[in-house]
Amino acid sequence: MNDKYFNLEDFKLVLIFSIIAIGVASYFKPIIGGILFLVFLYILFTSYKKVKDKNDASKKYIEAISEDFDSITKKAIFNMPFPLVITDGHGTILWYNSLYRELFDEEIMGEDIKDLMTDIFVDSESDYVNFEMRFKDHDYNIFTNSSEVKSQESGREYIRVFFMVDNSSTAELEKIIADTTPMVLKVEIDNYDEVMDSTPQNQRPILLAEIDSIIRAYFDELDGLIAKMDDGNYLVVVSNFGFSQIKDRKFDLLDDLRELKRGNTIPVTLSIGVSSPVRNLKEAANEAETALDISLGRGGDQAVVKVEDSYEFFGGRSKAVEKRNKVKARVIGIALRQLIDATDDILIMGHANPDMDAIGAAIGVLRAVTNRNKNGYIVLSESNPSIENLLARLKEEAPELAKHIINHDTALAKINRHSLLIMVDNHRPSMTELPELTEKTDQIVVIDHHRRSKEFVESPVLTYIEPYSSSTCELVTEILAYMSDNLNLSHFEADAIMSGIVVDTKNFTFQTGVRTFEAASILKRAGADMFRVQGLFKNDLDTLVSKAEVVHGTKIIHKNIAISRLDRDSENSVLIAAQAADDLLGINGIEASFVLTRKNDKIHISGRSRGDFSVQLVLEKVGGGGHLNMAGAQIETNDIDEAESILVDAVEKYLDEVEK
Length: 660
Description:
The protein is of the alpha/beta class. The longest helix is centred in the first third of the chain and has 49 residues, at 30-78. The chain is elongated.
């Protein structure tokens, strides 16, 4: 369409029809045709003139509007109620209004805007950009528009306009809202019974009063609202600003109570669950409860903070204290028995690349299932050096049990929404033997002794995580004892479960409590033989030589941390790394050891420690987890030098946190 408002071409069909009609009339009646033709010419002329006049009037109207628009646009730009500046495509200032000039003390025409406002965003190919920027104690929303330059005389390709809207009041209001948003904390003395038992009777009221005073004074200082729910449990509400001070202080309340001595021989430890800052207090309370469960599941003496879709951890540098009360084990045993009775098919699964604890616990749970006359299956795709001796004995001594070990395809074919999936020695879906199984059933049971990590099974029907326990096999032994008066364990099954305890306690020297020996005595009465169990851990000559190479290549950092590597991917490289890490702790003065090795195009790290050095907190920084003194991790790289550098950085960060 051209620039005319009306056009005779719009009447083309009418004109053509008129000419044809005049031609026909002239053919039959020439005189009448001539008259009609003259009339047609007159009408055509007058119509053309009217169209032209109308178009001229329209042009003048549009030009007048354009002039008015240009005038008001210029006036609007010159009288903008906020700073405005125009630059060329390179950021050179071409024009600015008075409000923008007031931001500076010197003349700025021709200056580069990036030199004046270092945080401004100039280099963009987009015609329209919106961003936020802080400048001279003010918060601005910056709106930009770019336009191509039609005239090439200036040499500029385009110009850009920056509108600076002062958003300081809104930003201040947002900060006030954020600072005053409530956060809910649930605080629990996680070893309350043990502390009370270790305190003389006449000192207990004094100790309880001192604990209550310290907790209340701590949160009163932050203008928090605190309510004592029952013995050892508190509900606290603080502002987000108050919580930020707690976070800056690294939850030093944990240290204050741990150092409290009023006749107690066991330190007082807290578990704290913290919600994210939300307006819905009910939702915040639920988040705090979940965070508290995670803190307890990680062994206590720490704070767990909900942060969006993840968690932050503070503390956790103490060993989990053994709980003497077996009520929970009895309750779990009864609940598990009921779940088994209500299900036809039960699948049992440990972690990928299972060790003796995982396979031993799985065999123990399978016995519990068999005792209830139900069908149970252990999911295991292939053997590995850690368990090959055990599986060899299984095939020889318990061929019927071997029929209950199924591969991945069979497991996927058997499972359905109503199947019961029991996870042992692991609570992270991604680390299981077959992660897909966790998505195919609504009934999942978790039995584990590792400290709870960020990743966890979604909505398990039963959870039994006890970081104080030496091994998952110890937990399974207690559960078996409460599920039935007669364990019905074969000698092989008793040996298998005992081997899990032996491997995780390093022959009853590590993380061993009273209940560990009680579980061992139950297995001993069931026919476990330590000579046969020790036979399951025999190594071949190549393994011993490889361990010697790892020890020989050790280097020491910070005078007490040993780091070494097994720079090859072999079938038993992970086993060698774990055993070598144990051996390195035998070096005089070494408090922690880490051994790296290749496995399936990844770098596996085994960490071991003694005393208060937490290899768990170190390896959590690189995506791993485990216990205070025994942990592992996998790094997604095939470069072992890069992995070692990542590990050393994690160690440095951990040491810095401990010093603070």
